Amino acid sequence: MYGKYNRLVSEFKKTYPGVEPTYCIRVPGRVNLIGEHVDYNGLPVLPMAMEREIRMLVGPLSNNSIRVHNTSPQYSPREFTISNNITPYSTGDWGNYIKAGVQGIVNMARESVKNDKFHGFAALIESDLPPAAGLSSSSAMVVASALAGLAVNNLTISRQELADRLAIAEKYVGTMGGGMDHAAILLSAVGSALLIEFFPLRAATVPLPRGYSIVVCNSMVIAPKTEAARRSYNRLPIECRLAAMILRKEATALYQEAASARRLADLLAFVPAGQLYNLINQTLVGKEWSKESVAIALGVSLSELEQEYLLMGDGQLFPQPADGFLLAERMMHVIAEGERVRASVQALEKGDASQFGQLMNASHASCRDLLHISCPELDKLVDIARGAGAVGARLTGAGFGGCVVALVPSDQLSQFRTIIIERYYNEYLKQNRPQLYQAAQALGYDNIVLASTPQSGAAVSPLPGGLAVLSGT
Fold first, then answer.
1. Full 3-state SS string of 17-75
2. 358-370 per-position pLDDT tens digit
3. Distance CA 467, CA 473 (A)
4. Active-site residue list
5. pLDDT in tens, 423-467
6. Is residue 221 part of a domain?
7. Residues in Cβ contact with 135 at an 8 Å cutoff, skipping those fewer than 6 apart
8. Cα(164)–Cα(161) distance, rounded to whole angstroms?
9. If DSSP states are collapsed to H, E and C, what string results for 384-405?
10. Which domain, by its residues, includes 318?
11. Per the CB 3.0–4.6 Å rule, which of 15, 151, 252, 396 could disulfide with 405?
12. Do β-strands 65-70 and 121-127 pair in parallel, antiparallel, or remain unpaired?
């Protein structure tokens, strides 16, 4: 009766005696081809959904409890009660991504139907999507739990609206990201990359060049979900916003409309990119930016600066970095990366794989030199990938570890894979990071060097008694 879900259904029933599973939710990971750390600046990105995914089997409960088990023993079971304000677990706890999705659904439903009586659910999760690898396993978990909450409460919502809402909902975990991950996970289509634009959210499919494959290679450097890692990630959107607001003040003298800008993309709508580069050089370059100097540049008090610009999602105050706020570097990257995304779409629409590869290479250099989100292992893996035949390779995701994405001629896939395994894992990691080498051996190369084709977005498959919960695109 349950077809391909028989094994998972059997385990579900053993885990939750007396609870009937009614939905299987499939949520893919995503790999970003180009456009790193630009979504929260309002600039476009170009990801695709991939084969690796989270699968969640869900059954409704008669009360407002959420009970979650994971087939992987590294994730302990989690249980909590639905409320208007769900208390988070400690920073880094995997259960916070479940809570984020549920809290997002609670907020939506409270606005639309003014009903605070929500049914909870029991869920069993299995996944072949590697965690902390820059492939959006965290956002996939948020999407999965939100879809579960919608399903068991018979609520419907369009994919586009859900993507918009969940980008906000994930701030529950304390990271100040943009909306790329949720849009890619929900709106992707088979066979195409997805150009995603923001404010308002909109998406369009983009063809990938024939005769080439997307290959994702895991560096094995884990990007942890610790407080320190969260702070490193949050630094970037904070610095981007500070820089954009300083530039707005300067640009308003030349373009009155710029006074309404809320983010960099708004400035670019009023100020030509060339002029904005000039303002960066005149205003931001060559200065050491402390909280005090930023406050002076913005014409606000130190207290106003902290309350308006330096508060993180959990209410904590972001501290001044030891090396100051790196405003010029961040803006240089974001403007150029936005231009690279546009140029990539043009190249792909013409089938120009070589040009797209060059843009990928330039993106990695910018992520390394201006954002400082690469690491020696990622740089080495990128170099080896290019030497192994990739026409372009770059880090993908938030950085600080994770994966490299490469564009490889399909007829060279086998050779490419052999070279990557030998030169990066069996030589470089074995000699320089033996613990990571051992982790790679345990995981198996089929799970860390992945040739991927674009997949469709998340789906809810009703088992007997279930109803569809997504409408439209």
1. CCCCCCEEEEEEEEEEEECCCCHHHCCCEEEEEEEEEEEEEEEECCCCEEEEEECCCCC
2. 999 999 999 999 9
3. 17
4. 181
5. 999 999 999 999 999 999 999 999 999 999 999 999 998 886 555
6. no
7. 29, 30, 31, 50, 52, 129, 216, 396, 397, 402, 403
8. 5
9. HHHHCCCCEEEEECCCCCCEEE
10. 227-329
11. 396
12. parallel
Give yes or no for a contact between 460 and 147, defined as CB atoms under 8 angstroms apart. Answer: yes
- Alpha carbon of 168 to those of 117, 165, 176: distances in Å? 22, 5, 9
The span from the CA of 388 to the CA of 417, in Å, is: 8
Give me the mean pLDDT over the 389-413 stretch: 96
Question: What are the residues facing 28 on neighbouring strands?
Answer: 53
Cα 205 from Cα 192, distance rounded (Å) = 6
- Cα 404 vs. chain centroid, distance in angstroms? 14
Domain identity same for 10 and 91: yes
Count of alpha carbons within 13 angstroms of residue 50, beta-carbon side: 26
Model confidence pLDDT, tens digit, residues 370-381: 999 999 999 999
User: Which position has the token pair 């390779």?
Assistant: 393
Q: What is the pLDDT of residues 188-218, one digit of tens each?
A: 999 999 999 999 999 999 999 999 999 999 9
pTM of the model: 0.93
CA 453 to CA 377: how far, in whole Å? 25
Distance (Å, rounded) from C-alpha 327 to C-alpha 339?
Answer: 19
CATH number of 239's domain = 1.20.1440.340
Residue 256 maps to a domain: yes
Indicate which CATH number applies to the domain containing 120: 3.30.230.10
30 contacts: CB under 8 Å, gap ≥ 6: 47, 48, 49, 50, 135, 136, 139, 140, 180, 181, 184, 185, 188
Residues 94 and 203 reside in one and the same domain: yes
Main-chain dihedrals φ then ψ at residue 450, nearest 5 degrees: -120, 115
Q: Quote the tokens at residue 386.
A: 């290019």
Domain count along the chain:
2
